[in-house]
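Continuing the batch. This is chain 6 of the set; chains 1 through 5 are on the previous pages. Same settings as before, nothing changed between runs. Recording input and output for traceability.
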Amino acid sequence: MGTMYLRGETWWIKYYRNGKPYRESTGTSKKMVAQKLLEHREGEIAQGKLPGIVFEKVTFEELAEDFLRDYRINQKRSLERAERSVNHLRRFFGGYKATQIVTSRITEYVELRLTEEAANATINRDLSALKRMLRLGNRQTPPKVDRIPYIPMLRENNVRKGFFEHSDFLGLRDALPAYMKGFVTFGYKTGWRFSEITSLTWERVDRKAGLVRLEPGETKNQDGRTVFMDVELQQVINAQWESRKRKGKLCPLVFPGRDGKSPIKDHRGAWDSACTKAEIGRRLFHDLRRTAIRNMVRAGIPERVAMMISGHKTRSVFDRYNIVSEHDLKLAAAQQAAYLDSLHGHNLGTICPFPEKKEESQNG
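Output for chain 6:
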């Protein structure tokens, strides 16, 4: 049975859940208002819920730390991206209680980020992080969040469609410094992510069998992967091995940076300079991934096999990378024309005359 008592002019209430007492200020001097809050709290407890005061003490900072801890414990590769989202969100929601994070406040945050000219995709990543924070809080025992507000996402119209024609890639590779030539060739042939190639070590390479492995947990989707290398890739790997022996630096990385011992990190300077020299416009390393998908499909490799090589887990993203170029459209038109020309006995390309409709006589 709950009780009410005065502290100065403010009513306080006291109630119990599983024998544990809770004391809460009602923030009012009106006894009837305090009585209604007490009845509401007792109603929550009767339904097996935690009293609302528990959730009102949880802050954004507590949810954010739980969110990042989950990333660290599970060794998620996108931890750095999650930290950036938290920093963006903290500028707005820092000091907020979890109960204050409601849809109206979330739309205010979106509006603020749009005025800062943040891309829709970037804002959506922040909103996804916020939603994940709230879900983690809701799933805990006991829960820290009693409800997850509606979080409207923005439409993303900024999906890149960049890819390399083969001549463009050859021009880029020729213009790159020596330590990056094999690196980009591997990306062009396999479609692996930048981080997967930069972290590839010799213990994952079987030169005799001509294959490369990534173990489960070493990829973005946590799945293992095995790729058999063609002749050119085997030559690339053998050249990297010989360079390693020649320099006398037993670096575990297959594709080290310019110094021959540390990973390739800041590649943009050399990359942008090579793009300019090759006169191919601005490109991203990720465009090699899109290109590899397209090339494998057009080479007749079954799509399921291509997905296993590139590491795509979902069909929707794979399809988005399977880009159609102007050359593909021209080829389709030529193939259709050849097919139609092969049909015999048809007057193709001629508009057949239709008889004009006779006018009806006035007499009917």
